[in-house]
């Protein structure tokens, strides 16, 4: 084949260009892959990692439900305080005076512990005795004072006399002649009851009526 001279020159020049181009590309590629860190140039700032934003936790509110309190049991009203029942001491039976006379119907009267005043329950008895004595003629009466076993003999003799004198005065105020009434005291020496309790002691605290 016959190649023209100018075409040969062009072909050679094209080959040289291709070699130069290939050499430049090869050098460029080598620098880019191995010595990239040594190539001067503006450093690319490392992109800051975006902070991970976590979704806010939903606040859970627990609403306390008020606990219904059990209704308090009603406080029972205090029971009314019972008044102490006063023990009523039955009036002991009077000793029987001498038979064959209305004076045997005379009744004894009783006294409180260590007292010689006339009690309210003794007033009706003395009233009845006064009516009986005023209806009788020519009578003589002895009123004897008695005490229970507590206390000394000397003290009870005085207390017994005061009890007899109180009964005599009451009769005199009702019109019974004092001259026909004699008083004496036995203290605790002649008890009507020998037991040692309140009921027995009450029987012994008396003014005893008897015909002379």
Task: Describe, in plain words, how this protein is organized in 3D.
The protein is of the alpha+beta class. It has a domain at 106-211: OmpA-like domain (60s Ribosomal Protein L30, Chain: A, 2-Layer Sandwich), CATH 3.30.1330.60. The chain contains four helices and four strands, in the order H-E-H-E-H-E-H-E. It has helices at residues 5-34, 123-135, 153-173, 198-204; strands spanning 109-110, 141-146, 181-187, 206-211. Strands 1-4-2-3 form a four-stranded mixed β-sheet. The model is unreliable at 25-37 and 94-100 (pLDDT under 50).
Round the Cα radius of gyration to an integer and report it. 70 Å
The low-confidence runs, each spanning 5 or more residues with pLDDT under 50, are 25-37, 94-100
Order of helical and strand elements: HEHEHEHE
- What is the terminal-to-terminal distance? 206 Å
Q: Assign a percent range to the helix content.
A: 25-40%
Q: What is the CATH homology-level superfamily of the domain at 106-211?
A: OmpA-like domain
Count of DSSP helices? 4
The fold-level CATH name of the domain at 106-211 is 60s Ribosomal Protein L30, Chain: A
Gross CATH architecture of the domain at 106-211 = 2-Layer Sandwich
Q: β content, as a range?
A: 5-15%
What do the pLDDT scores average to? Answer: 74
Basic shape: rod-shaped
Strand order, biggest sheet?
1-4-2-3
């Amino acid at each position: 084949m016959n190649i023209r001279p100018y075409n040969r020159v062009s072909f050679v020049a094209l080959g040289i260009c291709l070699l130069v181009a290939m050499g430049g590309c090869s050098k460029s590629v080598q620098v880019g892959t191995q010595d990239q860190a040594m190539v001067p140039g503006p450093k690319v700032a490392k992109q800051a990692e975006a902070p991970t934003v976590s979704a806010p936790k939903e606040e859970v509110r627990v609403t306390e439900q008020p606990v219904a309190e059990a209704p308090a049991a009603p406080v029972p009203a205090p029971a009314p305080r019972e008044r102490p029942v006063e023990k009523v001491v039955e009036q002991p039976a009077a000793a029987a005076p001498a038979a064959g006379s209305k004076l045997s119907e005379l009744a004894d009267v009783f006294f409180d512990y260590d007292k010689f005043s006339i009690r309210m329950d003794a007033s009706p008895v003395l009233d009845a005795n006064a009516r009986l004595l005023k209806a009788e003629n020519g009578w003589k009466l002895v009123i004897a004072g008695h005490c229970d076993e507590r206390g000394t003999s000397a003290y009870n003799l005085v207390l017994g006399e005061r009890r007899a004198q109180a009964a005599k005065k009451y009769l005199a105020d009702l019109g019974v002649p004092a001259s026909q009434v004699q008083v004496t005291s036995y203290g605790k020496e002649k008890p009507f009851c020998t037991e040692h309790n309140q009921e027995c002691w009450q029987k012994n605290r008396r003014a005893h009526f008897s015909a002379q």
